[in-house]
Amino acid sequence: MTTPSNARILVVDDEPICRHGLVDLLRHRGVKADAAADGNEALRLFRRGEHRLVISDLAMPGLDGLGLMRTVKREVPSTYFVLLTGTATVTSAVAALREGADDVLEKPIAPDRLTALLARLESSTPQTGIVTGSARIIALLERARRIAPTEATVLIQGESGTGKEVVAQAIHAWSPRASAPFVAVNCAAMPETLVEAELFGHERGAFTDARVARPGVIEQADGGTLFLDEIGEMPAGAQAKLLRVLQDKCVRRLGSMESREVRVRFIAATNRSLRELVRERTFREDLYFRLDVMTLELPPLRERREDIRLLAEHFVERWAAAYGRPAPSLSEATLEKLLAHRWPGNVRELENAIHRAVVEIDASVIEPRHLTLDPIQRPAAAQLAGRSWDEVQKELIFSTLAQVGGNRKRAAELMGMAERTLRNRLREYRGAVQA
Fold first, then answer.
1. Domain 135-297, CATH number (from 3.20.20.30, 2.40.320.10, 3.40.50.300, 3.60.21.10)
2. Pick the CATH number of 9-124 from 3.40.50.2300, 3.30.1360.120, 3.40.390.30, 3.40.50.300
């Protein structure tokens, strides 16, 4: 029996034989486990933020099992908490369950009960959808799990294609809001004229095409989580109104004089430095500080190469199953080619490459010839010396567009740039030429 890779169990018992015996049994089954001799020591260990399950004796001197459970559940409600009792009567079990315990077991725990307990822990752990062997990603997910039960606004930073929305979904799944809506919106993909109507909704007649009243995505996410992707591309007017929503917890539709209270957890994401955008005066500083309560930094795929093989094999299985085909294997030469690539488009680019190979392959092994990778040429360091960032960026944009046949969406993905930003840069370049 295994538990999720980021799960850890805390065993609390003032009787050394019982405490060490259960820890040894768990470790023998490959489970990470820590031990505490009393409730206060358990709290110190628990507050390190690593424990998914606490198994505690009910009767202990000082802070007993019930007191420990109340504190743990108040601080991290998603923690699975099991109380142990020497004489598990129906009355004591019912009382403990009413207090918030997830289970009550009699000491010592029988092996079959322990197996069933670990199975419940595994099935109760939300799937993140992230395939990883990277210590950096595992640490990030553990931090995300600690943040999830709180109401804190989260800012996820990382290049395009690194999986920011998947992390946002995991935070939602680990939170008390898991049964409520998770609404995602890409700020860069919305036409500037419709951004405010999409976010805040509108009443009938608010503008020419507003034939019926419609709630915005903030209202749609009421009680749940709103994921604002590419938040740095949001127009200034919408930024000001979003700041007001974050401050007042109310939203006003376009064309309305009334405000509606909303209970929304905001998670924002960006592939650009919001600090830099604040310095450039294209992003509000006060909104930045409202969003930057808890920040998660997703590393690019080239900085976690241990994940390339895992992800490639995962995508082979996924797309082969989607088309009802046997999953082909990856040759060693193919894996070498995958590991040598820089992956400017990150995980999304890797998935696209594997998807194309699975669709087109007529063999049982994916060879290097089956891969179509985008050979984006970056200027060598010697070529960059003495040149301004604007010049380098301009050259990169035009060379990337040339290599993808002018496909702006694809070029933006490969450069880790929002498509709207690319359009704005091209508009600036055209204006400079005309001038």
1. 3.40.50.300
2. 3.40.50.2300
Compute the distance between CA of residue 292 and CA of residue 148 in angstroms, rounded to an integer. 15
Task: Compare 393 and 6 and report the one with higher pLDDT.
Answer: 393
pLDDT digits 0-9 by tens, 218-270: 999 999 999 999 999 888 888 998 999 999 999 888 888 888 899 999 999 99
The answer to which of 66-80, 150-164, 171-185, 249-263 has the lowest mean pLDDT is 66-80
Q: Which of these ranges, 285-299, 307-321, 387-401, has the smallest mean pLDDT?
A: 387-401
Q: What is the mean pLDDT of the chain?
A: 83
CATH number for the region 304-370 comes to 1.10.8.60
